Amino acid sequence: MMLLLAALAGAIATPSLDEATRALAAGRPEQARQMIASAVASGASGPAVDRLLADLAFQEGDWVRASAGYAALLPARPSDAHLLQQAGIAALHMNRSGEATMLLDKAVAQPGAGWRAWNARAVAADRQKDWGIADRAYAQALKVSPDNPQLLNNRGWSMLLRGEWSAAVGFLERAAALTPEDAKIAANLDLARSAVAESLPARRPGESDGDWAARLNDAGVIAFRRGDRQKAIAAFAQALETSDRWFARAANNLAYVESKK
């Protein structure tokens, strides 16, 4: 009887892999790490543990370890939508465009592909300036998750990359309305509006020198892409005056633009 009670107590004290999965899903990687370690110490092993370890590395931004983990799992499960999606996103983060495209094409081909897979495929297409595939992938992603601010922000940025400023404003305004506290989305919206209005971004109340200089530098890049050399020079020059941290980048951009007379 004592042995049975001790065994039951050990089972209760040892977290399960399902609990570790829930901790990861809730964004608690450190708790998940402890649970996985406890489960392994109690004898857990195999693909379920390896999958969790790869997902843990992914959530922590350790793209090399995550990629290696998914690569080891995929031969046994080549049509696993989650593995394909996560491996593709990890490859994107490591700037391995060919590998990312191959994995994400397989991910979105799986039944019920989620918005993350479609979004990642669209981002990969943006990087390759394949606007047709980007449009189709974003459209599919937004069908799955139409009010997703991350998706709308990425869609808007895609339009910025093409110089389609008014279209970018529309997507970014929707994203900002859904998450008004998101500084990145707000900065992208300001950039798109400044491109439409042909004016430089105004400094926000309480904004740091570095953040304002970064937005000015981005505005200069966008202006130069649309052929507005004078606006680009003004933006880079103002960024130079604003922040030492951005001095080198803005100075290089300014020198490049001024050389294109």
- Helix- and strand-based class? mainly alpha
Helix content: over 70%
Question: How many helix segments?
Answer: 15
Mean pLDDT: 87
Shape: elongated
As a percent range, the share of strand residues is under 5%
Order of helices and strands: HHHHHHHHHHHHHHH
Calculate Rg over CA atoms. 23 Å
Distance between the termini: 89 Å
Low-confidence stretches: 1-13
Largest beta-sheet characterization? none
Say how many strands there are: 0
Structure description:
This protein has 15 helices and no strands. With 261 residues, it is mainly alpha-helical. Helix 8 packs antiparallel against helix 9 (131-144). Residues 1-13 have low confidence and may be disordered.
Task: Set down the secondary structure blueprint.
Blueprint: H1 2-13, H2 17-25, H3 29-41, H4 47-59, H5 63-73, H6 81-93, H7 97-108, H8 115-127, H9 131-144, H10 149-162, H11 165-178, H12 183-197, H13 209-225, H14 229-242, H15 247-259
Summarize the entry for a quick read.
The protein is an all-alpha fold.
